[in-house]
Records
---
Amino acid sequence: MKLPKICSKSPIAIDAIKDKRYAWCSCGLSDKQPLCNGAHRGYEFVPKIFTEKEDKTIYLCNCKKTSNPPYCDGTHNKI
Ligand code: FES
């Protein structure tokens, strides 16, 4: 399988909570998309750890090709 695995060609919205620590899956193997579940172990991929400064809805990349992880940058429209 070629990694990162494309999970979907659209972002996933989550309601992020201020200062909560999130781990975005960069490899595409997690079954808890768009977040990491540890399935990257043994591969060169590591999750992107991030927090938000306020409660807000964010759109996380799920094609795993974004240039601005963990956020969707529209790259899914080109693949
Ligand atoms: S499961 Fe994909 S980065 Fe952790």
---
Amino acid sequence: MYRVRLFATRHSRAFEWIYKRVEQVMVALDPLFARIGYNRVEHPIVLIEKGVKTLLFDCKMCGQCVLSSTGMSCPMNCPKQLRNGPCGGVRKGGYCEVKPEMKCVWTLGWDGASHMKDGAAKIREVLPPVDRSLQGSSSWLRVSREMAVLNREKRDAARMALADAFPEARLQEPSSAPLADEPPKATTTGRGT
Ligand code: SF4
């Protein structure tokens, strides 16, 4: 759907916004996915992701989506599958060297990135090579799972920092002792214990 692909890069700002919302929903669903089992939800999510992204971006389900870094233009549509900018063969008017009827995905990507909030900076970042072992898997699920793990680690670190601060705070200022339930670490160390 070449025309839809062009539409997506022209409206990359809106798609950037939608993508962020989808990501938030997927991260929020992490406890549910974990309960059901990520391996079980993979297949239905792949079907949804493939359907939506094939229609909008001519997605090839590489499993490591970089649309937010490429102005919403899928680099897997480049006949040479270049992930870090165009080759030296871009034709006059920004057309592809291999498929002259098609705009180079990188000229589209550059236009798309210029409309996006973070696009101009992100398109300059060097992307890693494609990991073919991820082909066909859900990028949405993998990224949201990684983000959920990261969020959990941050929350745990904040809790530990709080637990570490309780005994010290009690020594300095006993009246500052918290009224809420304290983490076990806070009640086993510090003043008189
Ligand atoms: S970068 Fe990969 S996952 Fe993203 S649209 Fe292209 S083929 Fe699909």
